[in-house]
Amino acid sequence: MAETLAELDRRVTWHPFTQMAEWSPLVIARGEGSWLFDTDGRRYLDGVGSLWCNVHGHAHPRLDRAVRAQLAKLAHSTFLGLSHEPGIRLAEALIAVAPSGLARVFYSDSGSTAVEIALKQSFQYWQLRGRPAKQRFLRLGDAYHGDTLGAVGVGGIDLFHRVFGPLLVQSIAIPSPFETDGTAALARLEAELSNRAYEIAAFVVEPLVQGAGGMLVHPPGFLSKASALCRQYGVHLIVDEVATGFGRTGTMFACERESVSPDFLCLAKGISGGYLPLAATLATEEIYSAFLGRRADLVHFFHGHTFTANPLACAVGLESLALLRESTLANVQARILEITAALTRLSALAPVRAVRQCGMMVGIELHPIEGRALGVEVCEQARAHELILRPLGDVIVWMPPLSISADETQHLERATMTAIMSTVPR
Ligand SMILES: Cc1ncc(COP(=O)(O)O)c(C=O)c1O
Questions:
Q1: CB atoms within 10 A of CB 313
Q2: What is the CA radius of gyration of the chain?
Q3: Would you call 99 helix, strand, or coil by DSSP?
Q4: Which residues sit with their C-beta closer than 6 Å to ligand 1?
Q5: What is the pTM of this model?
Q6: Residue nearest to atom 8 of ligand 1 (CA)
Q7: Which residue has its alpha carbon closest to ligand 1 atom 4?
Q8: Which of 103, 101, 72 has its CA nearest to residue 86?
Q9: Closest ligand 1 atom to the C-alpha of 279?
Q10: What is the pLDDT of residues 308-366, one digit of tens each?
Q11: Residue 43: helix, strand or coil by DSSP?
């Protein structure tokens, strides 16, 4: 008999964050709106927005058209030493919607590289400005900024990061302000800054909510106070909006909610509507200007990737931004309220320990049971109820496409509830 795609997958691939010895593939054939369809034609609501990046749903006619129109002109040409219209136009559009002060766009292709670039630019900026001792980074406990080594160096999730410890750039942890009023975290931040701002380049932070740490929502005001402290002590603020950006928390960027204008803004995931790999690191004109000089001075930024500013990705990014402003951002506002109501109902279930929400970023934490991987079990169970979910430990995550409808939100709630109740013993 001919080998199935799932069997072939088992023979030739190695999947990310996956224990291959205990895994069997679900092979997705196509997507439409909020739904994914497997090779047997079964449908599933995309409850995690294809790893938190889908904005307007799958196979959106306008996004498809934007890719095709660009494809007819140019699929790829390098941004190293050359330029192209989609890259230029998207940079202009990003600066127009970004917090004030951000004036320059440096492209790459994933959230990890967007963060890595901010770290390197901050580091080099201080060298160029005659402050060579500023080489260290501050970050939060349970932080997640990606999987390349620089990004792991400012990460704080033991489970993911411990094994790579000896390889990493060392960073200084500030306790996460999650489940506190933020006073202790801010006091610690201020203590570190007042003791050793001379050796600190930047503070890296996920704004309002730490996603991969378990949807850890910060107390209001933490970001703006942390930002003021960084400014006071002459340390860069790098805001990582890879997960929160492009409407996910209810505004275009989470920073806006606390009127924060960082020195660096890291964007990825939703930047292309979730269609193609694209990322951007935005910086201020002051930072950019430090890298200007004669070519022979060798002060320019020695960093770039083959697919930096891929034209197809930039073209779809431009259309995605237009769609967000025309309609999808308004949809988020309506759905946020329905999701809040759904979470109130879910929080009444005995197996649910806590629910957390920041806009359309949701964590449903289950009471742990010794010897069980409840998060994984619930997410596997959800598939039988036409729903794709992916847990963070015992936390069930909702990160649906921002275009999700009211009916689909109800499906998300019902299928999650059924999956929890059929997994956890009463
Ligand atoms: C806040 C944050 N930063 C960075 C990343 C890494 O992005 P990527 O997976 O595109 O490298 C993620 C991914 O989940 C993220 O949530």
A1: 25
A2: 22
A3: coil
A4: 52, 110-112, 115, 144-146, 206, 211-212, 240, 242-243, 268
A5: 0.98
A6: 111
A7: 145
A8: 72
A9: 10
A10: 999 999 999 999 999 999 999 999 999 999 999 999 999 999 999 999 999 999 999 99
A11: strand
